[in-house]
Amino acid sequence: MSDTALNDFNDKNMWRSTTVLAIKKDGKVVMAADGQVTYGATVMKGTARKVRKIGDGKVLAGFAGAVADAMTLLERFENKYREWNGNLLKAAIELAKDWRLDRALRRLEAMLIVADKDNLLLLSGTGEVIQPDEDVIAIGSGGPYALAAARALLRNTDFDARKIVEEAMKIASEICIYTNENITIEEL
C-alpha cells in the first residue's frame, strides 16, 4: 500500500468525537458536551460523558480528544487546582507549563475547557491557555458549529446561558456528523 493510500486509510479510520461548549452569562457558567464517539464511519458509543464538575463542585471541565489522554490531563489539572488552592487561572498556567515541558504530556492528544465563576479557559495540546474574547468557547469536531450558533444566540436573543447552550448544541448536532443529541449539561 502506498504512503498516500495508507494515510487515506488511516484518516478514514480515525477516532472522532466530541463537541464541548461553555458559556458564561449573567453570573452563570454552563458547559455541555454531546455523547458521540465515532471511529471512521461507525458510531461506537452515543452516551459518553465528557463534562463534569471537579474541585468540590466549583469548576466545570470538558474534554475532547483521546479519552485516556483527556482523563490524564483532567486528573493533572485537578491536582494543580488543589495545589494552587482553587486558583483556576494559576492551575491552568502551571498545567500548560508541564504540558510543554514534560515529554510524556506533550504526546497527549486532548484539549480541555475549564471554567469557574470568574474564568473560562481553553487548555490546548500545544500547552497554551486561551481566554476567549467573548464568554463562549468550544472544542471538538463540532466545536466550530456550536461556537458559531452560541455567538449568534448570545448576540441576538435574551436566552439565558443554559438555553443558549441547549440550542447551540442542538444546531451543532444537526450539522456535524460526529455530534449527537445526547447532551450532558453542567452548570455553576
UniProtKB/TrEMBL annotation:
CDD domains in the record: protease_HslV
Record EC number: 3.4.25.2
Compartments where found: Cytoplasm
Active-site feature positions: T18
Cytoplasm among keywords: yes
GO CC terms in record: HslUV protease complex; proteasome core complex
Residues annotated for Na(+) binding in this entry: S173, C176, T179
Reactions performed catalytically: ATP-dependent cleavage of peptide bonds with broad specificity
Pfam families listed in its UniProt record: Proteasome
GO biological process, one term: proteolysis involved in protein catabolic process
GO molecular function: metal ion binding; threonine-type endopeptidase activity
Keywords: Allosteric enzyme, Cytoplasm, Hydrolase, Metal-binding, Protease, Proteasome, Sodium, Threonine protease
Enzyme class: hydrolase
Activity regulation summary: Allosterically activated by HslU binding.
Main location: cytoplasm
UniProt record similarity statement: Belongs to the peptidase T1B family. HslV subfamily.
Oligomer and partners: A double ring-shaped homohexamer of HslV is capped on each side by a ring-shaped HslU homohexamer. The assembly of the HslU/HslV complex is dependent on binding of ATP.
Role noted for this protein: Protease subunit of a proteasome-like degradation complex believed to be a general protein degrading machinery.
HAMAP family documented for this protein: HslV
Record-given protein name: ATP-dependent protease subunit HslV
Organism, as annotated: Fervidobacterium nodosum (strain ATCC 35602 / DSM 5306 / Rt17-B1)
